[in-house]
Design a protein that fits this description.
This protein has 2 domains: 196 residues, 2-enoyl-CoA Hydratase, Chain A, domain 1 (Alpha-Beta Complex); 56 residues, Orthogonal Bundle (Lyase 2-enoyl-coa Hydratase, Chain  A, domain 2). It is 47% helix and 15% strand. The chain has 11 helices and 9 strands. The strands form 2 sheets. It has a 6-stranded mixed beta sheet with strand order 1-2-3-4-6-9, with helices on both faces. A 3-stranded mixed beta sheet has the order 5-7-8. Helix 1 links the parallel strand 2 and strand 3. Helix 3 packs parallel to helix 4 and helix 5 packs across helix 6. 34% of the residues are buried. One of its GO terms (biological process) is isoprenoid catabolic process. This is Gamma-carboxygeranoyl-CoA hydratase.
Amino acid sequence: MNDFNTLELITDSRGFATLWLSREAKHNAFNAEMIRELIIALDQVQGNASLRFLVLRGRGKHFSAGADLAWMQQSAELDYATNLDDARELAELMYNLAKLKIPTLAVVQGAAYGGALGLISCCDMAIGADDAQFCLSEVRIGLAPAVISPFVVQAIGERAARRYALTAERFGGERARDIGLLAESYPAETLDQQVDHWIANLLQNSPAAMRASKDLLREVGNGALTPALRRYCENAIARIRVSAEGQEGLRAFLQKRPPSWQSQEPRS
């Protein structure tokens, strides 16, 4: 594992990883170094076949305050070509997170502004505190949520994305849940306990089946019915039924016993 300056990547013995944004003094705001380190960390996660899922969190009071002010000041002094390079780096991060093979869960407390909504939207699931504050703040400083916009629209829908991108209104955890950015919101004092419950639930599931389901849902997309999609789905269930974990899961269910992935000893 790399030694990171802005992140912590911690592997749990039960078979999942937690990726912590760790610029607490800067409210976990993005800069070029953090973006590059996030790309490297996700590459490491992608290459670790033992991991079942990834949890994305922020150290301290806030998930992420968005872009670092000093980094934005530097960007304002760059020419178009250099700004385009910066945008491509951010896009690589967002697309890599969205396409990660294993399930991803974001956990949000405090502020989540600007590009932080991109990270949350790129994750498969997100939970947060009722008193968390969300904002697509770019238009307040003369910018647009360009790179993150496809993922935000997928998460909350086009109509809500238009509202919050154009008004830069702040909204809380319960509203974030209502529009689909969060799966659930909880009182802040119970958030860590709820994270434990989500982790315990994910650990009940077949690692291979979760990966296969994520691939399946990516292919299904918005669910438009086509002959090609029908064939893909037919092949998908046939493949997983004859897979090692598919066979183990079916046998365990019929024999009324836990499947092997629920009874494994903690990994060192």
